[in-house]
Amino acid sequence: MEMVDRRRLHGLRSGAEGSIEEFVDGHRGRRCRYRGLAKAHVQHVLTALAINVERLSLQEPADGPYRPRLPTAFQQHLDERGLPRPLWWRQGK
What we know:
Blueprint: H1 3-26, H2 37-58, H3 73-80
């Protein structure tokens, strides 16, 4: 497996692992409140919806005061010389 493919796979996996960890530790996902597969499934779906609503509520509004960071000195150095910027490994490019 190529290095780039492994990095892309690891980036995807780390995002999924973080979501699972949030579900398990932050919302008591190890134990089910109800008995039966159907009821457990409903509980997991509703918990996932609650997590998504919580995440959406923490996002900045599109017309908010957020401004992207300025390029670092190293990025400016690369731009001045016409050199490509190294991509962050999670970008998968």
